[in-house]
Specification:
The longest helix has 24 residues, at about 185-210. It contains nine helices and five strands, in the order βαβααβαβαααβαα. By secondary structure, it is of the alpha/beta class.
């Protein structure tokens, strides 16, 4: 039985992955190569990887859970979330300043359509809410196949182990905070790149707003 973690990044997927490793799953996580393949409409490499592992988290898996469900009958899915959409967005925005400036911005562009979440908070919050609602709707008649998990609200070992029919380990949850552990040296680089994108975005909006010249009625 395979386990797919289908929560978006910054919903505790790193901690969840560590939990699954402790429980004995052969786990794998984010892959830029697989994400780019999915973005281009090619999931062949994803299937090669999923055949070799037991559990999965982060990109590209939350984007293709419906296809994976069809391929791997009997799998289980864990939908991680934050206590509020705003909590998730703030974590994502903070994390965006710690990642590698170019890998991170490319990844976010492929997933969310923007290199930095600060460029369009409304679009990101809509993406988050839609992802949750779509997953809930997809599994609405199969509650035994999905676990909704929120570390902020006290989810823990008992929830995971009950869902997977496994004994609870005699150890604390391995909380991981990749935002805190991120590379602080990237902060200035990301802020500079974010400022550049912000200016570019503003210039584009200004240009679009001025591309509708008035038509002189005498030219009609």
């Amino acid at each position: 039985m395979k386990v797919f973690c289908i929560g978006l990044n910054k919903t505790g997927t790193t901690t969840l992955g560590e939990c699954l490793r402790i429980l004995g799953y052969k786990h794998t996580s984010f892959s830029q190569t697989l994400l780019e393949g999915v973005a281009l409409g090619n999931s062949d490499k994803v299937i090669e990887i999923t055949n070799l592992h037991d559990s999965f988290a982060d990109w590209p898996y939350p984007l293709i859970y419906k296809q994976l469900d069809c391929i791997y009958n009997g799998s289980r899915f864990i939908l991680s979330r934050r206590k509020t959409p705003e909590t998730w967005f703030n974590s994502l925005a903070s994390h965006s300043l710690r990642t590698d400036p170019f890998v991170g911005s490319r990844t976010r562009s492929l997933v969310y359509g923007y290199p930095y979440p600060q460029l369009n908070p409304i679009a990101h919050l809509a993406f988050y809410n839609k992802h949750l609602n779509d997953a809930r709707s997809y599994f609405r008649n199969r509650p035994q196949d999905i676990l909704e998990l929120c570390w902020d609200e006290g989810s823990g070992w008992k929830d995971i182990c009950s869902f997977l029919s496994l004994p609870v380990p005699h150890q604390d949850l391995p909380y991981s905070n990749s935002t805190r552990l991120g590379n602080m040296s990237n902060d200035k680089k990301n802020k500079n790149l974010l400022n550049w994108y912000t200016q570019l975005h503003q210039n584009t909006l200004y240009s679009c707003n001025n591309e509708n010249p008035k038509t002189d009625s005498r030219d009609a």
